[in-house]
Amino acid sequence: MITYLDKVAVRQTGENISITRFSVNDMQKYGYSDEDLFIAWYMELRFPGEAFTVIDETNIPKDQNGNWDKAQRKEWSLINGKVEVDPVKVKKKNEKLQNRQAVLAKLKISETELADLLKR
Amino acid sequence: MGIVTLPSFGTDPATVNAANLDGKVDPLATEFNGGIDNDNIASDAAIANSKLNLASISQNIAHSGTMTHSGVVTLSAATTMNGKDFTEAKGADVASAATCTIWVTDGNFIHITGTTTITSFGTAAQAGDERTIVFDGALTLTHNATSLILPTGANITTAAGDTAIVRAETTTNARVIAYLRKDGTAVAATSITAASQSEMEAATNNTKTVTPLAVNWHPGVAKCWVLFDGTGTPAVTVSHNIDSSITDNGTGDWTVAVTTDFSSANWAFAGMCNDTTEAGFLSVVGNPAAGTLRIVANNHDGVDQDKTKVSVVGFGDQ
User: Fold this and answer.
1) CB–CB of A74 and B247 under 8 A?
2) In what order do the strands lie in the sheet with A53-56?
3) Averaged pLDDT, A92-99
4) What are the C-alpha distances in Å from A50 to residues A10, A12, A105?
5) Could you tell me if the ipTM is greater than 0.85?
6) Is B143 exposed, middle or buried (CB count within 10 Å of its CB: 0-12, 13-18, 19+)?
7) How many CA atoms lie within 13 A of B241 on its CB side?
8) What tens digit of pLDDT does each residue of B17-45 get?
9) Which ranges in B5-163 belong to alpha helices (H)?
10) How far apart are CA B121 and CA B96, in angstroms?
11) Rounded to whole angstroms, how far apart are CA atoms B313 and B46?
12) What is the DSSP string of B34-63?
């Protein structure tokens, strides 16, 4: 039975963010009893030199079952100590989608037809 | 013959001469040259050894009392104990020596004292002789395929309290038919040594044994593996030598960490993924590090996608 800590470490990796969950099992396995010390040591061990922010796991978007709601995972950002759907990224995504649809309209083909073309 | 009755020479005075004396004695002599009836032997009669030739007794002897005999009794027929035990004797301790004579005559059960290496148990009275031995000290019993046959075919280092049963194969050759350690275990067939990490990694040794720890060092064994659910809140389901702490880098994008790192970044990995609706493809992002591997799952259209079952296996040197 694996039990996870209530804290996660968030790193900015280009446009995306990476979130590391920490298990109590690992904390004990590596001989730590203090969560913050363990997280700091672990992040330096696995991602040396990279900056990270520790936040409560509750500050990640959740679905109705309490699991991470990753429907808009690509638009997540760390905003004010919380992982949220970033409006800027959503806007960029929508613009990109609109451009795509405009191109398809000019070509007079659908998404399905484009997919078929790409498979050839 | 019944009760011996001395012959009468007649009314006194009788004349005894050679002729009538012979006539009276000869029948008696003739009678005693044959058998002696029990009623002719006094109850307290003592028969000298020289007058009782047991070698000539061939019939069965039935005896229900105690027989005490200080000489050698040789039985050439089967000996049957009828509802009685056979009580043996414990002999005096025997000091260990190169030739340690256990075929002592004061008992079948003996202790061997001292720590001198034993190469022979000496000369037995005859083949088949048996002794039960207790070793009082640590010494070496030296195996010899002919003269001192040990159960394992190898030397035995005794410990105080170990026991053995020895039979004489011949008068000069002995076989230890049973050897029991003090803790109740039998002597091991062979002395087994666990293979070291370097021996496991070389994978060439054919005489040493593999322990649960050492098996992981063999190059043909997976050094790490993991199955995790990458959907929703990512979580490790089962794993070996993979941290259950897991990093979600994005949709269908994770980093797993090896608990005991590989010795370098050059290790082989394999992985698969799936969910309940469609298959997936797993690939590695960049080069793996000695202790981490970043993997990406795609659906059949090549789009990054979280999967419910993501598995990775790693082989290499640690």
Assistant:
1) no
2) A53-56, A4-13, A16-23, B246-250, B253-257, B292-298, B281-284
3) 93
4) 10, 9, 43
5) yes
6) middle
7) 22
8) 777 777 777 766 666 655 666 676 777 77
9) 18-32
10) 10
11) 95
12) S---GGGS-TT----GGG--GGG--S----
Are A74 and B244 a contacting pair at CB < 8 A? no
Q: Which chain A residues are closer than 8 Å to B231 by Cβ?
A: 67, 70
Pairing of strands B163-168, B224-229: unpaired
On the 0-12 / 13-18 / 19+ scale of CB atoms within 10 A, B170 is middle
- B250–A74 CB contact, under 8 Å: yes
Of the candidates A2, A59, A7, the residue with the CA atom closest to the CA atom of residue A35: A7
- Rounded (10°) CA dihedral B47, B53, B54, B58: -130
How many whole angstroms from its chain centre is CA B24? Answer: 74
A18 to chain B: nearest residue by CA?
B249
Q: Which residues pair with A23 in a beta bridge?
A: A4
pLDDT of amino acid B287: 87
Position B67 confidence tier, pLDDT thresholds 50, 70, 90: confident
DSSP B142: P
Are B236 and B228 a contacting pair, CB within 8 Å?
A: yes
Cβ pair B143, B154 in contact under 8 A: yes
Among the partner-chain residues A19, A29, A69, the one whose CB lies closest to the CB of B247 is A19
Rounded Cα distance between A78 and A10, Å, is: 8
- Pairwise CA distance, residues B243 & B256, whole Å: 7
Helix spans in chain B (H): 18-32, 197-202
Instruction: Among A18, A46, A115, select the one facing B257 at the smallest CB separation.
Output: A46
In DSSP terms, which residues pair with B109 in a beta bridge? B90, B132
Q: What residues form DSSP beta bridges with A11?
A: A18
- The first and second tokens of residue B252, run together, are 């269908």
**Per-residue model confidence as pLDDT tens digits over B247-283:** 999 999 999 999 999 999 999 999 999 888 888 899 9
Of B244, B247, B306, the CB nearest to A2: B244
For chain B, list the strands marked E by DSSP. Answer: 94-95, 109-113, 130-135, 140-141, 148-149, 156-157, 163-168, 174-180, 224-229, 235-240, 246-250, 253-257, 268-274, 281-284, 292-298, 309-315
Q: How far is Cα B293 from Cα B226, in angstroms, rounded to an integer? A: 12
Calpha distance B250→A18 (Å, rounded): 7
Residues in chain B: 318
Residue pair B156/B187 in contact by the 8 Å Cβ criterion: yes
Torsion of CA B145, B151, B157, B163, to 10 degrees: -130
Asked whether the beta carbons of A77 and A84 are under 8 A apart, the reply is yes
